[in-house]
Write a structure and sequence with these properties.
about 120 residues, mainly alpha, two-stranded antiparallel ribbon, about 65% helix
């Protein structure tokens, strides 16, 4: 499951975020404990805990003392908003800048996006 592109704790946090965005984890649902996660993926519990703490700090998970960790209310919408913002800053803005540099009119870029989207639906 894990690769060498980023720290394991970050990959754990990203996987949980993706599970929330896809609906595999619902708001209010309990998530595996750090020990269960560490045992299942055969990683150090401290590494799993670091990923979980990041999610708690971001407000994606919350902890109920003595019970476990749960997906925060509105976590899905918060994550969607963050991903949308990142999509525009990391994908759309650089694409618009590059199109201007190489002289592609934005109307042509938009037409190409529509064409690609139509191809997806067929």
């Amino acid at each position: 499951m894990f690769d060498d592109r980023s720290p394991i704790y970050q990959q754990i946090a990203d996987k949980i975020k993706n599970d929330i965005l896809s609906g595999a984890l619902q708001e209010g649902e309990q998530v595996m404990s750090t020990n269960q996660y560490a045992s299942y993926y055969r990683i150090n519990p401290a590494t799993a805990a670091k990923g979980f703490h990041q999610l708690i700090d971001e407000g994606v998970l919350f902890k109920k003392r003595g019970i476990g960790m749960f997906v925060s209310p509105n976590a899905r919408e918060t994550l969607r908003g963050q991903r949308r913002d990142r999509f525009f800053t990391e994908v759309v803005d650089p694409m618009v800048t590059e199109a201007r540099i190489i002289g592609i009119p934005l109307t042509e870029v938009v037409a190409r996006i529509h064409h690609a989207a139509e191809g997806e639906h067929q």
